[in-house]
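Worked Example 4.2. Consider the chain below.
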Amino acid sequence: MSPLIPKAVREFLKDVKRASHKEKKSMVMSIKKAQDIAETLEGKFDARQISHN
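Applying the procedure from the previous section yields the following structure tokens:
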């Protein structure tokens, strides 16, 4: 797994913390889409880590 993925996730979570409520709703939908995509990659990327961080 690329070391860039966790860094990208951390940067994304920082953006979420700074975002307004409306922006957060849109980001949550993006996370759900990303989890769906990740689940189709045969577990190469654990989408549950996004939810727990």
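Residues 23-53 form one domain. The chain is about 75% helix and 0% strand. Compare this with Example 4.1 before moving on.
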